[in-house]
Design a protein that fits this description.
- This protein has helices spanning 96-99, 107-120, 148-158, 170-182, 213-227, 239-243, 245-254, 268-271, 346-368, 370-394, and strands at 2-5, 19-25, 30-32, 38-47, 52-60, 127-134, 138-142, 193-201, 230-237, 258-262, 280-287, 292-293, 295-299, 304-310, 314-324, 329-338.
- It has 399 residues and is an alpha/beta fold.
- Strands 1-10-9-8-5-6-7 form a seven-stranded mixed sheet, with helices on both faces. The chain has a five-stranded mixed sheet with strand order 3-16-15-11-12, with no helix packed on it. Strands 2-4-14-13 form a four-stranded antiparallel sheet, with helices on one face.
């Protein structure tokens, strides 16, 4: 079961939503001389003013993340399970091997695999990423200025530290994320950047003690994130986290974000990469001259997009449309000419081969991304249900 809670007034369906697009390719008047009847389309899009993103990835590695995720994360043909003596209501004395007999299928393994997938969907030219791990304490594993190689190295280290961080301290994790985003603020006059915290946890706050401090401090930290305009998108993984949904829901609303509840923790593999930081629902490509649709169209989490448009001889009008999740729309058109040069040289053959390989690889990626798109559609449908429910409760009773 998946449930998503949207903040008040967020994702409202209205045509006033401001959608922008930076279309990098093709340029107006581009001539395709290669004997390939298609042209690559590339750009970025989003809703709102910010063209760039700063994202803090916050991953829970508390002791309970050694438990099974319910999914064959490492794809070795079997799904890791707990030993028969491990009970859901008490497992604290269990060794890692008893908690899950396949370390590659733990909740922590699913979280880290999901983060790896997400990083492939964030363009380094548009999105900076920080990595934070937490349990009873929080640690900035990689700052916002990290390269993708440094982030990969950080994830590799965390992949050997499942359950290493003890208890669950939401407040410490959120504060570490706020600090990581604050330390790399753009200079005055630089392009505006949208700040987001993606928060993964399989439990509810248990620290710092005594009660009710864990929840109280977590909510206070979320308020600080809201003040800093850092959107908190929370992912509750499994029954324990879902049972604590009220705290996560309030935290996400205070920081103008969202809550995604995932009953089977391993399904985070699909739901985390489906996050829409740019608030764009779809990018459509078409050859307006021939009415042929685009092929292998990808829209990444930060609004970066690409795809291919088929061409015919002569002039073609490439039409690109971007649709926001709030109903806004932006369109661009480019005139492109297909005039293949006679003869073939080794250089031309290599470029033709490169384009065909690129189209094949992108098509495979799009096919593999069906589950991600399905998760996005489920989230939007749930948000629509929540909006209707809120509207009903706010409407005055009939006289």
């Amino acid at each position: 079961m998946l449930a998503v809670c949207a903040p008040p007034a967020a994702r409202a369906q209205n045509s006033d939503e401001q959608v922008w697009m930076d279309l990098a390719a093709p340029l107006e008047g581009y001539v395709q001389k290669l004997p390939v009847a298609m042209v690559e389309v590339r750009g970025s899009t989003g809703a709102g003013r910010a063209r760039y993103h700063d994202v803090a990835l916050v991953v829970d590695l508390s002791a309970s993340t050694r438990l099974p995720s319910g999914v064959d994360v490492n794809e070795n043909g079997r799904i890791g399970k707990s030993a028969p003596e491990i009970r859901e209501d008490y497992w604290g004395d269990g060794s890692p091997e008893k908690l899950c007999d396949d370390a590659g299928d733990t909740i922590a393994a699913a979280e880290i695999a999901a983060l790896r997938r997400l990083l492939k969907l964030l363009d380094p030219a548009h999105t900076r990423v920080a990595l934070i791990a937490f349990g009873d304490r929080a640690e900035v594993v990689a700052p916002l200025t990290s390269t993708r190689a440094e982030l990969a190295k950080g994830l590799e280290r965390l992949d050997h530290e499942h359950g290493h961080y003890g208890g669950t301290n939401y407040a410490a994790a959120i504060d570490a994320a706020i600090t990581a985003l604050e330390q790399a603020k753009p200079a005055p006059g630089a392009s505006e950047r949208k700040r987001s915290i993606l928060f993964l946890s399989d439990g509810y706050p248990t620290m710092p003690q005594p009660e009710p401090e864990p929840a109280k401090q977590a909510i206070a930290a979320a308020k600080r994130a809201g003040v800093e305009q850092s959107h908190l998108h929370s992912f509750a993984l499994g029954p324990e986290a879902v049972r604590g949904r009220d705290i996560l829901s309030l935290m996400s609303k205070l920081a103008d974000g969202s809550l995604t509840e995932i009953e089977r923790p391993g399904d985070v593999l699909f739901h985390l990469p489906s996050v829409e930081l740019s608030e764009i629902a779809e990018v459509q490509l078409e050859n307006e001259t021939t009415k042929q649709p685009g092929r292998a169209v990808r829209v990444l989490a930060d609004g970066t997009f690409d795809g291919f448009v088929p061409l015919e001889a002569g002039r073609n009008v490439v039409h690109v449309s971007s649709v926001g999740i709030g109903g806004g729309r932006h369109e661009e058109r480019r005139s492109v000419y297909y005039n293949p040069a006679p003869g073939t040289s080794k250089q031309v053959e290599l470029e033709v081969s490169r384009l065909r390989d690129l189209l094949r690889d992108r098509s495979i990626e799009v096919e593999l991304g069906r589950e991600i798109q399905k998760a996005r559609e489920e989230r939007r449908a749930r948000q629509k249900e929540l909006r209707i429910d809120v509207d009903r409760r706010q409407s005055p009773p009939p006289k």
